[in-house]
Amino acid sequence: MFRKRFAAALAMLLPLVAGAPLALAHGVEGRDAAFLQSVSGVSFFPYMYLGAKHMVTGYDHLLFLAGVIFFLYRLKDVALYVTLFAIGHSLTLLLGVLGGIHANAHVVDAIIGLSVVYKALENIGAFARMGLRIDTRVAVLVFGLAHGFGLATKLQELSLSSDGLVGNIIAFNIGVELGQFAALALMLIAFQLWRGTGTFNRGAYAANVVLMAAGFVLFGYQVTGYVLT
After folding, report:
1. Which end of the chain is more exposed for a tag (fewer CB within 10 A), N or C?
2. pLDDT digit string (tens) for 107-143?
3. How far apart are CA 21 and CA 162, in angstroms?
4. Alpha carbons 207 and 12: distance in angstroms, whole number
5. CA angle (186 as vertex; 122, 192 as ends), nearest 5
6. How far apart are CA 80 and CA 55, in angstroms?
7. Residues 6 or more apart whose Cβ sits within 8 Å of residue 84
8. pLDDT given at position 30
């Protein structure tokens, strides 16, 4: 029975977990980085496109979002938590790049990994069994701040022109939100289909164990990177 539940959970989360290695290097690199560093003046749509691209290839962000919406059945609840997350990461993305606020990328990404672990633990009721009461809304907002710094550190690694920077970073942030919306829509469809199979309740625990394991992988990788550098 457990094997069937685990198989169902793994089938649901495999696309995200399989992409976890990409999250370890989903920074702006290659031709994208070269383009951004060559831009002088406002280049709204390219920045917006790259912001969306960054989000949909940022599997650490997607894993956290999957955990957040895992047990949300009403669209107004989904909208509330996703809005809190968006507010958090938008603030630190803009402040990090435009305000020159820096943080160690490995530390930030390690916290992002822990955000995935936290949400999985909450989903399986671990905190409730320990008698801990955590306001999920506050937690999602706070972890959103960390995710925003994660985005900011990727741009801070580049030599971006100050000419048009404000407009470009706003465009990048808009792209991030659009990418998040697209990814969220696909995840909601996938969850709805899974719930319709009748295996959701049986596989929910195993799915969150898989989610937690992915978070620990992300955390361990970043801690190792911090120590080695």
Report:
1. N
2. 999 999 999 999 999 999 999 999 999 999 999 999 9
3. 32
4. 8
5. 65
6. 19
7. 137, 140, 141, 144
8. 76
* Chain segment 172-188, per-residue pLDDT in tens: 999 999 999 999 999 99
Indicate the domain borders of the chain: 2-228
- Residue partners of 208: CB distance under 8 A and separation at least 6: 9, 67, 70, 120, 121, 123, 124
Distance between CA 150 and CA 89 in Å, rounded? 9
Q: What is the pTM of this model?
A: 0.86
**Cβ within 8 Å of residue 102, ≥6 positions away:** 96, 153, 156
CA dist 33 and 22 (Å) reads 17
Residue 115 CA to its chain's centroid (Å) = 9
H or E segment to which residue 213 belongs: helix 200-228
| Torsion angle defined by CA atoms of residues 131, 134, 136 and 138, in that order, rounded to the nearest 10 degrees | 180
Pull the structure tokens for residue 20: 């976890």
| Amino acid present at 70 | F
